[in-house]
Design brief:
The chain has 312 residues and is α/β, with parallel strands linked by helices. It has a single domain, classed as 3-Layer(aba) Sandwich (Rossmann fold), CATH 3.40.50. It has 10 helices and 13 strands. The protein has helices at 23-34, 87-109, 145-155, 158-162, 181-191, 210-222, 240-251, 261-277, 285-289, 299-311; strands at residues 14-18, 38-44, 53-55, 72-75, 117-123, 134-135, 166-172, 174-176, 204-205, 207-209, 228-232, 238-239, 281-282. A 7-stranded parallel β-sheet has the order 3-2-1-4-5-7-11, sandwiched between helices. Strands 6-13 form a two-stranded parallel sheet. It has a two-stranded parallel ribbon with strand order 8-10. Strand 4, helix 2 and strand 5 (117-123) form a beta-alpha-beta unit. The chain is globular, with a radius of gyration of 19 Å.
């Protein structure tokens, strides 16, 4: 397989990350440190240990001077989506993303030497529920709550772009890892032979292996010609029914269960409809066009690699 262009320590020495203690941020930080790059976590609090950067997103306090000399910033902070929604939680989901990104972009705009690149979080929820429609970065947004959040989240980074920083918007799909997220929640029922499709099973799932997400983020840090939205998904999205049978085959288990749409409504409400029943058939057009090669391009390959690593 063709090797990816990696950022050399001499070219990329300091990277600051919001959300660095989360699933994606911690995995990326570990890989950057292996490259000899200094990682500074942007953390809430009045005082943090060096070399981390303190800030308060609620009060808007982020001293731009703390970011001077940072070569790149990765913005991954945000309230978890996977919780039953009410008005208060929906507001927290939106504001946690908008406030953090707005303050960060404004701080970047005030720097004497802005970072060369800002990788700012987004999600394939940008596209809304689109059935069988094939989607890439040129496709327009959906009209539901998560689409509205993603649209506003992406716009919040505009001040950094206007300051001359290359801004890449990470439209992330379902990240496959046993460390957390959707796959971890699915493993218990599937291992007991109780796994099954959700609803009709026709809804498309756009996924990416955690290893490929990290590799793609590292690639984008140094891919100077790439800017704007980039879909961080594998090139083979799968309908939920196919995802179900593939996971069961990898685990050598039957698929006896079916989760009816009514049960999704009862258990999870609007959040369940938006995340478990919505269909997004998303392709990584810009990543592929830029020359990125996936280590795990097919679903079965990705699941076997992840579950094999867990057993080893």
């Amino acid at each position: 397989m063709m090797s990816l262009p990696e950022a050399e320590p001499s070219a990329l020495k300091r990277v600051a990350i919001t959300g660095a203690s989360g699933l994606l941020g911690s995995a990326l930080a570990a890989q950057l440190r292996k490259q000899g790059i200094t990682v500074q976590r942007i953390k809430r609090g009045a005082a943090v240990a060096d070399p981390d950067i303190a800030w308060s997103s609620s009060s808007g306090i982020l001293d731009p001077a703390a970011l001077e000399g940072v070569d790149a910033i990765v913005n991954l902070a945000g309230e978890p989506i996977a919780q039953r929604w009410n008005a208060k939680r929906k507001a927290a989901i939106q504001q946690s993303r908008l406030t953090t990104t707005t303050i960060l972009a404004a701080a970047i705009a005030r720097l004497r030497r802005p970072p060369r690149v800002l990788l700012s979080g987004s999600a394939v929820g940008f596209y809304g529920d689109r059935g069988d429609e094939e989607l890439d970065e040129n496709s327009g947004p959906g009209s539901d709550f998560l689409a509205g959040v993603a649209v506003a989240w992406e716009r919040a980074a505009d001040a950094a772009r206007q300051a001359g920083t290359r801004v890449v918007l990470l439209r992330t799909g379902i990240v496959l890892t046993t460390a957390g997220g959707a796959l971890r929640k699915m493993l218990v029922p599937f291992r007991f032979g109780l796994g099954g499709r959700i609803g009709s099973g026709a809804q498309w799932m756009s996924w990416i292996a955690l290893d490929d997400w990290v590799r793609a983020a590292r690639f984008l840090l140094s891919a100077d010609t790439v800017r704007g939205p980039v879909n961080l998904v594998a090139p083979s999205p799968a309908p939920n029914a196919e995802f179900t049978t593939t996971l069961a085959r990898v685990l050598s288990r039957p698929t006896l269960g079916i989760v009816p749409e009514a049960a999704v409504d009862l258990l999870f409400g609007e959040m369940g409809r938006a995340t478990l029943l919505a269909s997004q058939r998303v392709h990584p057009r810009r990543l592929v066009d830029a020359g990125f090669e996936f280590a795990h391009p097919t679903l079965e390959q990705a699941l076997r690699a992840e579950l094999g690593a867990q057993r080893s």
